[in-house]
Structure formats: C-alpha cells, structure tokens
Amino acid sequence: MEDTGLASELERLQALAMELGARVDDEGAPAAARELCGALAASVDRVIRLAAGSNGGNAGPGKSNGHPRNSCRKAGAAKTRTQVRVASVQDTGPLNDGLSWRKYGQKDILGAPYPRAYFRCTHRNTRGCQATKQVQRAAADPLLFDVVYIGAHTCAQQGAALPLLINREQEQQQQPPVFGQEQGSPAATEAQTLSWPVVEPVTPFSFPSSPGAIDGCYMLPSSGYAAIDGLGLDMEYEPQLDEFFFDPSELFQP
DNA sequence: GTGATTTGACCATC
DNA sequence: GATGGTCAAATCAC
C-alpha cells in the first residue's frame, strides 16, 4: 500500500542522509559521528533496496515464512498486529518508543540467530492494558530490530504516544528533519554526545523501563510506515501479514 | 524493599 | 512432536 509514498519518502531519507554526511564532513564532526553517518546511509540504502526489490517479503529473518504460526494463535485473539523494523546505533537494543514495557520472556526462535524477547505493558495488571510486543534482532543486521506490536494500549500511555505521532507527522510536513534530533531522550542524548545541533523535543518523554531492551519507533498515520528514532532508521511493512494493520488510532484505542 | 529481568517449565497450536 | 507464547520462581539492580 502507498508504494509511491513509501518510495518518495525513502528517497527523501536517502537525500537527507547524504546531506547529513556532507555536513558532518564539513564541520569536522568526531569520527564516531562520521561512522554513524556512514551506517545511517548504508541502512537507508538497504531499506530502499528491500522496499523496491524484494516486494518486502524476505526483508526480515524468517518472518513471512519463518513463523507461520505467529498470527495470533490464541483462540479469539484477533488483535491488532503491527510490525516495524527499527534500528539502533547502540548495541544494547533499539531505542525508547515512549511506552513502558516489561519483559516477561525470551525464546530462541528456530532459524533465527538471535532470541526473541517478549514484552507486555507495565500497566497490564494495574490498568488491564493488553498491549504486548515482540522484539527480535534481525539476522542480516544486528543493529536492526524487528518489533511486532500486538494489541492496543488501553492504559494512559496512549495520551503520550498519540501526540507524539501527530507532532512527528506535522514536524515532517513543516520542516526537513535532522537526524539525531528525534524526540526520544536516548536519541537526544546521542545527538548531544555527537555535538550535533539539537532542537527542542516535540514531546518530552522517557520511559527507560528496561535499559537493555528498549526500542523506538514512530508510526506515521498518513504514510503508513515507521520512521525510527536513534539515528539509525529503518522500517518494514509486511504486506503478506494478514493481521497487519497500520492504523495508530486502532493501536491505541481503548 | 520494591520492581524489573532472567530462565526453565508449561501450555496451546499446528 | 515441534515450535512459539506465557507463566512464575529466582535473581538482580536501584
């Protein structure tokens, strides 16, 4: 869906990555910053190739054909299922997504080199929030994480998340984004560490519930893809997934 | 002391 | 029987 929009947005990302690289070179940024720019450009290039060439099918490790039973196997569990791919420049895991999650399990997945981590909403018990997510490191690129959101957030966090999505969209429409200045505090920290220009976050948030297993992604309602926090950015949409819906309002509805 | 993470075991589905 | 998802006790971190 929205192939043309996706392609144009990816091209824009690539252009921005190139511009960023040029600026980093011009301004004598630290070597680490230049390395990150290179990684960013490579990641964007991979996304473009994945989106354009492979029909999006084999972009992930064993997804479309790797876990055929992964589609809400529990009886009557017709839950919203949203899959995104996020990237992190850190090796500790993807960045914060503004929601608080509690890890409740981890499994080695057949055919996957990395285990899959299972998270549920921290407020599951107190507020009955049924949202869960699964995070798995991509086989092809350890800095990429496949994140699957299952179910809707019914807790108060939706109040923080939705404005974030909306503002993010508005920001992209109004001005060109600058990598490394995303809203999330981890990314902001990185930006500061790299001495890059930092703008005021659109929506301050930080839910570092689990430093070793946090992630970050933003979902853009209009374009139907995820723009990712934390310098690295990547995303994935999987048309083969019958359960795939990309309606944030559905994601966070009570 | 409290809350989060780890990890083995159990259960459901195919 | 194999596999994925969840539970719960033990452990760890703050």
UniProtKB/TrEMBL annotation:
This is Uncharacterized protein.
